[in-house]
Design goal:
homodimer; seven-stranded mixed β-sheet
Chain lengths: 229, 229
């Protein structure tokens, strides 16, 4: 029986494209540089970091610092510009950052399950992700939030998934993690014995692809998956 | 000749009472508890932490985490409530958080000096302080911001004052630090060989009280002090 549902944040609850667009706008204002040039560098740096994480070769304690430095170097600016830009972006994002159906789904699950976020941190600190979840009303439906810069472990590291389970004294088979990155979210959760949902927007329908794993189109499909467990 | 001016943030640039009032309001909403009860506990916990810092006996790496845990314990709540409340407070503070004359003074000094912040972090991460400085237009006049949760050293530790000096290759006697806490700001800066201004709102006038130290009423008095160095 599932007692805890863990949500990845970016591209699961919140639209990372909205955040990155606002980040690009902020950098463009600060640097007086056209937005096109900047978007490319951000996406490239992001891919670079995702590779490092997949192989778990990045330092968990310094992950945020190193990601910001990598981006600063790619943009050829002082890291202070990156810090200012992520603050500006956090100030300017609007409600379009909420992915469709997310609030309604969390409302539905709230009170019936322990609801957590298990999030990796890249160019901005978890404090800004917390602030956005607070600003647009999602934090009300989350029991406790866990982030890599606070717990010093990032998905797919085991500790990232186990920290919430230990906190709430829940065993892996009583927990489900849902997220959009196959290696970080889906495989990482399965490896520690949890149930897992992989969000693939191109999937045609909800499908069981592992003893404990499902592919879904969005978080809304949780309401279809949970009765099957 | 002064090349770098370092500013404490809370009660030097920004009014901490405005932040704490908004924090109390947020806690009150989250807990359904009257505001009066909460203010007392916040102030007591704050005094406790300031004593720990004065004797430099708190761990620099875990300072934010430990301060939030201390407050959570004093309020008898999960630390998640503290994290949510500081996020809410950051969202609700208005322009009254800017202390009088601060923006005009920074504008005046900008471009003539390297301007830094050297801030200790207590109940909320530096990311929120950065966001507030960005939101109300002060970040435009600051060359680079330094905070204890990022540099892993808090005032009055030497490293907290030396980090900006090392970054900009400025020697202590070419730098001035201004802040409102006598031990953390004034004595800490003097000890590493910098000039120092102590903000005492009850001072009657600007006065030299040390070879390298002045007492002032607010940051505006910097414009009176700097020509004397």
């Amino acid at each position: 029986m599932i007692r805890l549902i863990s949500f990845d944040v970016w591209n699961t609850l919140l639209d990372i494209n909205v955040m990155v667009e606002n980040l690009v706008k902020a950098l463009s204002e600060l640097l007086g540089v056209p937005e096109n040039d900047l978007m490319q560098k951000i996406l490239e740096t992001r891919e670079e970091i995702k590779k490092i994480r997949k192989s778990q070769s990045g330092s968990p304690e310094k992950a945020l610092e190193e990601s910001q430095e990598l981006l600063a170097r790619a943009l050829e600016v002082d890291v202070e510009i990156v810090k200012r830009a992520v603050a500006k972006a956090t100030l300017t994002v609007d409600e379009s950052i909420l992915l469709p159906g997310v609030k309604e789904t969390l409302k539905e699950l709230h009170g019936k399950y322990i609801i957590t976020t298990t999030g990796n941190v890249m160019f901005w600190p978890s404090a800004y992700t917390r602030l956005i979840l607070e600003k647009f009303g999602l934090a009300d439906y989350i029991t406790k939030q866990f982030y890599s810069d606070e717990i010093k472990a990032y998905k797919p590291m085991r500790e990232a998934f186990l920290a919430p389970l230990k906190y709430f004294n829940v065993s892996p088979e009583e927990a489900l993690h849902i997220g959009d990155t196959k290696a970080e979210d889906f495989e990482g959760a399965l490896k520690v014995g949890m149930y897992a949902c992989w969000i693939n927007p191109e999937a045609e329908r909800v499908e069981r692809i592992h003893e404990r794993g499902f592919v879904v189109k969005s978080v809304k499909d949780l309401l279809e998956v949970l009765p099957q467990i």
